[in-house]
Amino acid sequence: MRKLYWFALFLAMTNVQAADVVAANSSPTIAAQLYRNGVLPNGGMLQGMREGGASLSGEAAACVNCHRRSGLGTTEGQIVIPPIIGKYLFRPLEKNIHDTSLPHVQNTRIKRSPYTPETLARVIRDGVDSDGRTLNYLMPRFNLDDATMASLTTYLADLTSKPEPGVTEDVLHFATIITPDADPVARDAMLEVMHKFISDKNEFQHGGARPIQSNSRAIKYRIKRRWQLHVWKLSGAPKSWQQQLHDKLIAEPVFAVISGVAGKTWEPVHRFCEQEALPCLFPNVELPVVAEKDFYSVYFSRAGLLEASLIAHHLQENSSTHKPKHIVQIYRKGDVGESLAATLRSAPELAGLKISNRELSAAPNKVDMAKALMQIGADDVLVLWLRPADLAALPPQPVKTTLIYISGTLGTLEQAPLPAAWRTVVKMAYPYDLPDKRLVRMNYPLGWFRVSHIAVVKEQVQSDTYLACGILAETLNNMLDSFVRDYLIERVEVMLSHRLITGYYPRLSLAPGQRFASKGGYIVHFSDAQSKKLIADTDWVIP
Description:
With about 550 residues, the chain is α/β, with parallel strands linked by helices. It has 19 helices and 17 strands. It is globular and about 80 Å long.
């Protein structure tokens, strides 16, 4: 009853204060702009001042930078940023720590008097907390007027306060999304890994187990929620996907989307997840959406888009010895390569160069390929955004040109079925760690596949899917029972760089505002006409 008293008292005091100000300023939308973007209700920039005279303005001053979108805070080394949502601010924390109905957050400060609207205004304006202690220099001081302060107070009271969809007493619901043009082999390989991972996890956790009973608040939570996977298969044209997903989410509320697989586009899925504030973790896509200011969609890498950047960077770095006069790109109409060619064409490093695109018809035929390869000069650069069937159909002898690049993502990496003579001259954009360097890291997933009797048919897709499931499991364990969608993304950001098992990637990391966990890649070539061994022409490059 006491916890309800404090929260009711806070709401009553907030309403009394808000009644004396312009009602529009209490709009959560306005307060969200202040909290997330550092924009004041009048459209001006939020101004903050730290002790010592350092000033902050606009986005740099926004509350979200430290307290995060969820309001649940974070830790960075020895620095602890506590939660600032109403559940924690306005009740005595020594009571919270024994309240098993309140989600446990590791960076909660146990001993502190509850805030009131007045003391909250004081800590924001003057940096003096509810017990009269001065906060350290990291907390800026903000000179907010009463109307803006009332709006922010109301926003914090409501922040992260509603039940999350897809979370029940005993089950966490997840979805994986499959577009209609996804590669069937990749689709089935991904699903087999996911079903087995979740089955193993549920069996391990739920073999008659019950919630742990302990006097320690740190472990007094329900760790035994079962995972349930919903497979959302899309159909029809991409323009219809968002409505399909909306209908599926209503019918089957889920906490997050995990993995997934796409063919030519993922953008409608990405947009849906952003609109619904639905975390989407590490889908298997060749053409991810580059929108770093979006929050809910997280990818392992930019995949084919990264390859375009690697090629542009390599051409610029080698312009003194191989300065091209003309770049010719070949791709198949309607395939991912069309977008990748457009990305390379717009690369700043290639500004001023002549770049021509040659499009193969949607239906493969030998005449198209022969025509596309005609009249390529010795000083030209050839870029092939082609899949294995097209690579295998290249003529026995390569065209005589300065450089030839192929896409590792589209061409199946070191498995690319190039004619022997081409293998001695092409360079491949390779957005992963080299095979010999990832051997040790791959021992774990490959060992799990063997024990699980899973045939390796799409190693990179299966490895990434296994990695995504493992990251999700580790993150949820660390979150304890704080099942909040925003907090899930925030915890992934914090934990990712500590992982030792990173599969195809040498390192994974996500700073706030970054949505691609692996940033670089190589330009490589085959060691000889017959071998699949790759030799790096570059160091690991982050273009």
